[in-house]
Amino acid sequence: MTGAAGFLGSHLCDRLLRDGHDVLGMDNLLTGSLANIAHLEGNSRFRFVRHDVTNYLEVSGPLEGVFHFASPASPVDYLALPIQTLKVGSLGTHKTLGLAKAKTARFLLASTSEVYGDPHVHPQPESYWGHVNPVGPRGVYDEAKRFAEAMTMAYHRHHGVDTRIVRIFNTYGPRMRARDGRVVSNFIVQALKGEPLTIYGDGSQTRSFCYVDDLIDGIVRLFERGGAEPVNIGNPDEFTVRQLAEHVLRLTGSGSSVVECDLPVDDPRQRRPDIGRARETLGWQPTVGLEEGLRRTIAYFKQVLAD
Ligand code: UDP
Predict the structure, then answer these.
(1) Rounded to the nearest whole angstrom, what is the distance from the C-alpha of residue 272 to the centroid of ligand 1?
(2) Given this model, what pLDDT does residue 115 score?
(3) 163: part of which helix (H) or strand (E)?
C-alpha cells in the first residue's frame, strides 16, 4: 500500500488487515501522517516503511496485490507540491506497476474524478473522456492521474498485469487533516472553532460527497471482483457547496457566519458520478447519507480539536 499513512490509504490498510491480509505500508509522509497508522503499531501483520515511491521499490517475498494510493490529493496540497504530484503520478505509478509485474501481483490505481476536469457531461460516466486544462494549475494532478491511468492500461495490455483503476469522487471522513484545505474538513473545523465558513465563489458549484467507509468497501470489491476498465466510486447525491455549508452549520449548531472568497482557477462547476458500472459489476452502492457521514466526521474533528 503506497500512501499508507494518508487518509484513504490508512483506512484501506485497516480494512485489509481486518480481512486477514498481511500489509506492507509505504509513505514518505509528505502529506500523510504517522498518527493515522499509530494504532497499528505492534500489529505483527503490518509493517511500515518510510519511502518515496518515485524511487526504486525493493520488496522481498511474495505480494498478492499492490495498491497505489500515494499522492497529494487536496487541491491546496497539489498546488503547493506540483512537481511531487506529477512525479508520484508518473514515476510512482511506473515503479509500483513494475513491482506488481515482478511479483505477479494484482495492481490497483487510485485515480480520481479530476480526470474528467471541469466536465461538459453530467453526471460523469466512465466513458466520458473529460475536459481538462493541461497547463492550468490543477493540470499537475489531473494530467498525472490521466498519465497514471494510461500507464496502468499499458501494463495491462502489454505485460498482462491484472489491473484495476478506481476513479474516486470527493470523499470525506475521519483522518482527513484539519487543515488539508478540502471543503468538508474546512467547513467542519471552521464551524467548530466559530470561524466564518469560506465559500469559494458564490457556492453554487456542486460536489457529491462519499463517506469513507462506503468508498473503501467499493475499492475492495473492485480489487476482488472487478476488471481492468476504470470504475467510478462515489456518492451520486449532489449538493451545492452552499448547501453543504448549511448542513455543517446545522449539525454543529455553530453560530459561524459564511463568507464568499475567490473561486480557485479551473474549479469544476459540477461533479456527480454515474455509478451504473459499480452497481452492475460490483453490486456496490453507498449506504451512508450526507447527514450521517457529517455527524461521524464532526465527532472525529471535535476529538481532534480537543486533543
Ligand atoms: N471550497 C469552498 N470552500 C473551502 C474549500 C473548498 O467553497 O473552504 C469549494 C471548492 O472551490 C470546490 C469545492 O468546495 O468548488 C470542493 O473543493 P475541495 O477542495 O474539497 O475538492 P475538489 O472537488 O475541488 O477537488
Answers:
(1) 14
(2) 98
(3) strand 163-168
Strand, coil or helix: 19: coil
Length of the chain: 307
Count of the separate structural domains present in the chain:
1
Active-site residues, by number, are: 141
Residue 187 CA to ligand 1 center (angstroms) comes to: 10
**Cα gap 54→56, rounded to integer Å:** 7
Q: What's the gap in Å between 79 CA and the centre of ligand 1?
A: 13
pLDDT of residue 283: 98
Rounded to two decimals, the pTM is 0.97
Identify which of 77, 190, 200, 248 to mutate to test ligand 1's pocket (most ligand atoms within 8 A of the CB): 200
Classify residue 297: in a domain, yes or no: no
In this prediction, residue 307 carries a pLDDT of 86
Residue nearest to atom 23 of ligand 1 (CA): 170
Answer positive or negative: Cα dihedral of 271, 272, 277, 282: positive
Would 56 be classed as within a structural domain?
A: yes
Identify the residue whose cell numbers are 497539489: 78
Name which residue sits closest to atom 5 of ligand 1, judged by CA. Answer: 183
Identify the CATH number of the domain in which residue 68 sits. 3.40.50.720
C-alpha cell at 182: 478540502
- C-alpha dihedral over 104, 110, 113, 116, to 10 degrees? -40
User: What residues make up the domain containing 18?
Assistant: 7-174+210-235+272-287
